[in-house]
Amino acid sequence: MVTNSTIETLLNRRSIRKFIDEPIDDDTIATLETVAQHAASSQYLNDWSAIRVKDQALKDRMAEIGHQPYIATAPLLYMFVADEHRNALIAESKGVATDPASYGLSASYRFSQANNDAVLALHAMETAAYSLGLGCVILGSLLNDVDGLIEALHLPRYTYPVLGLAIGKPDQSPALKPRMPRDLQFFDDRYPAEEDARTAVSEQVGAFDQTVHQYYDLRNTDRPVDAFSDQIAKIASQQMDAQHHVLPHAEAQGFRFDK
């Protein structure tokens, strides 16, 4: 592999869940937020926003929603949001109707692209934070209670929560989590034929199971963790409860999935 400081930053990223109790200075915050704004945006719609959670009571509520107490201790806490509400206001100022039946930016494709743009912005901010010696953890757990999150953050119609990001000075140094063999995720020209895909899984996942199992054993000897393939099988056999169904919550926010 070739390398430089950016590549080293990306290769050494790890989730940090314990932070030093020190605030992040305003210049660093301005830098992180500006970097996020420079991420790619589909059709230049700028269809995402990020809410910085500063109030401690609200941080506590986020920790309650995410079922992770460390969320409340993060010096910087953001919720990234797919945001077609701002564009609706702009469209209305130009005389365009923005009721759900008429508003073109409420369609399923736009919902998907706005989510993509929010993730790209979050990733840019995360990478910048790591490059400055900070630590981060991405918080998909905040989607445990989408309705509660929408209420807590006062999210209007045509917005939807995507991911949270906690940032701070690291107070831990966890080992790098293993990644699966590259040829299980990167393919040339087409997805592998079914037989080839099954063969690759059969031949390579067993060894990866051992690597992942060793990683978890060394990280926490008091709490054994299932092998990678067993984790996949366990999650695959579970049915999502209604709270995690995306369509009803997104439709309640004004997005349409019939178009």
TrEMBL record:
Keyword flag NADP: yes
Keywords recorded for this protein, A-Z: Flavoprotein, FMN, NADP, Oxidoreductase
Transmembrane helix is among the record's keywords: no
Domain named Nitroreductase: residues: 11-169
GO MF entries: oxidoreductase activity
Family affiliation: Belongs to the flavin oxidoreductase frp family.
Pfam families: Nitroreductase
Organism from which the protein derives: Bifidobacterium leontopitheci
Coiled-coil residue spans: none
Name of the protein in its database record: NADPH-dependent oxidoreductase
Transmembrane segments: none
InterPro entries: Flavin_OxRdtase_Frp, Nitroreductase, Nitroreductase-like
Domain of life (superkingdom): Bacteria
